[in-house]
Amino acid sequence: MKYNIKLQNANELPCRLLLIKTLAHDLTSPIRTIYGYTCLLEDSNCSFKENELKEIYKIINELAKNAINQAEMLAKFNFDIELFIQNHIEFSFPTLIRNLLSEYTTRLDEKYLQVKSQINLSEGTIKANKYSLSIIIRNLIDNAVKFSPCHSEIVLSVEEEDQKIKFSLFNLFDKQSLLHLDRKSTKNIQIEGNGGLGLGLCYCKQIASITNIVLQFESIYGNGFLASVLFSNKP
Q: pTM value?
C-alpha cells in the first residue's frame, strides 16, 4: 500500500527544510541520520538551494561530532569535520561520507530504502508505505516545532485511493493550544497526549481502509512534542 504525502507551500524554505529533515532524520541514531542526508544529496531527483545545503551541512557537522563522541569505530578515522565540510565540493562530500559510513554500516534500514528517491521537493510530495508513513508523520510533527516561528501552520495531506488524513499544526508555542479532533467526521480514532507548552492543534480525518488510528504524544525539549502514529486494520 502506497501513500502520497503532500506538504502545503512546498516551495517555501521552511517547508522544504521540513521535508528534507523528515526524510533524513532518525532520532535514535546520528549515524543513520547522516546516511539519510547522504542519500538525499546523491538523489538525482532532489535539487537543493544554496541555503538548504548550508543548513544540511551544518546539521551533518553537529551529527558527525556527536557520532565521533558516541562511536569508537568512527573516532578511529580521526578526520577534521570542519575542513571536510568546507571542501565538500572538491572532495565529493556525499561519496566521502558514504565511504566513511560503509566502514561500520553493513546495510541501510528498510525504512530508508522505502523512502529514499521517492521525494519531490518542488511538489512537496513523498511516496511511502504504511510503515514509513508513521515515521514520516512523527518526524514532521517533531520538526514542525522548530519551524513554528517562521511558519505557524504546517498542513500535511496523506492520500490513498481518494481518502485523506489531514494534520494541521497551529501555533505550536501557544500555551492555550489544545489537541482537537473533529469527531463528526471520524470513527475509531484515539488520540492521547500530554505536552503542555507546545502541544498544538491537530486535525485528523481517517483513511477509510484503516479503522483504528492512535496518535501518542509525549513531551520533548520542554517546548515541543513527538508523535508516534500507530495503525491497525482491526475493527
A: 0.47
